[in-house]
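Ligand-bound model needed. 5-O-phosphono-beta-D-ribofuranosylamine.
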Amino acid sequence: MNIVVLVSGRGSNLRAICDAIDAGTCDAVILGVVSDRSAAAALEFAKGRGIPTRVVSLRKGDDRDSWNESLAAEVADLGPDLIVLAGFMRVLGAPLLERFPGRIINVHPALLPSFPGHSAPQEALDRGVRISGCTVHIVDAGVDTGPILAQAAVPVLADDTADSLHRRIQIQEHRLLPQVIHQIAIGAITLDPLVVRTPVADSIRTLTVPDA
Ligand code: GRF
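Prediction:
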């Protein structure tokens, strides 16, 4: 399965996907990595592996509609079967969503539907939850609202900071995201465009609770 990975930052999830591909546990080919930030460390990593990279920047004052059109055009030009948001910090607009209905997935550092948005680990701490985790879900027009494909839980410890909790969650992200990509590649998870309209797709949801 041919994928394009969208990134904005460090790219540890991109690395995890590459590691799983190398290990033969993720049956995917990365056609390209696209970022909204030219300074994203993930881009350097991708270049180091010989993966084509593209940047579609959105600066203050830029027209958002044109940015959405450019992003969709760049991604579509690479011709992916699946688009993976791995730390891409922008909400996608209609041009990309309509070109790839139900074929865009995202990894989020919380057990959705709790704590969508940018500060999930901090919000989990603020609310005093005892268990958090990560979610891989199909992307729709909302903020982290699409149908859930898979989740992994981690304990929240008494002395956790947002950073320490996020690091523990990321260990599970790095396992779960390549696993879901592989399951889609081999047809164990079917991405039906209609699923995007369903709040929760029970048939494709899995819950993995690792040891504390
Ligand atoms: C991850 O925690 C992911 O859940 C969130 O952004 C973070 C990206 O991390 N959407 P990285 O760039 O893959 O290291």
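The helical segments are 12-23, 41-48, 64-78, 94-99, 120-126, 162-185.
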